[in-house]
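Supplementary Text 2. Reproducibility record for the structural model of the 238-residue chain.

All settings were left at their defaults, and a single model was retained for analysis rather than an ensemble. We include the record here because the model underlies the residue-level annotations in Supplementary Table 4.
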Amino acid sequence: MEKIQLKVDGMDCSNCALTIRKYLEKKGMQDVKVNFATGDVSFDANGNYKASDLATGIHDLGYEVAGEQTLATKGKRHFLSTHLQRFLFCLPFTAVLMLHMIPGLQLHWLMNPWLQLALTIPVFVVGMSFFGKSAWKSIRNGIPNMNVLIAIGALASFVYSLYGTLTGQAADYMFYETTATILTLVFLGNYMEDASVQSTQRALNKLVKSQKVMANMIAYDDQHQEQIFAVESDQLRT
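Retained model, structure tokens:
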């Protein structure tokens, strides 16, 4: 069997790693190992699928497989391509929607359902373009991920509120701020998780580099007896 190693971007948690592992095992791959912290994926290919086909399948799950094209365009990311950018975009809309919940702050104009709908739509579009897309791909492949729950929660509150707005029952069916809050806070959580993982990975890499590798140096004394000394590898000379 051929050993395949891939670099996958977009894994945020152990559930993401489990999703990719189940997909590869479903395709008959063996000895599948997925590390969401480093993005490393390795497995033994059975010869029935090309590596490019498996990479396409992983992409369809909502993740990016690093390759020649990915590496070439790594520095040319589009706007709203990171969790931090999405969070910062959604934050102003969500903050305005939450103003009417501050005690003592009377903002009657903010209770207009059409205004709240207008403020929610940008957040909803950005959120569903990520969570909804990822959720749909995971369901289509028979391996639902955690984004399914996020998408369902945001979609339910949005549709519920939209129904109230269109039927003139906004007073009883207005939860637009719930939609915006769910999506915005999860983007923030994903960003914090990514930052934590990257920080941990940098610390581990730094620790590995700082470790001293010992080597055995063989020398002979004046009696021509072999002597073995433990020395640090950086003290050796070639």
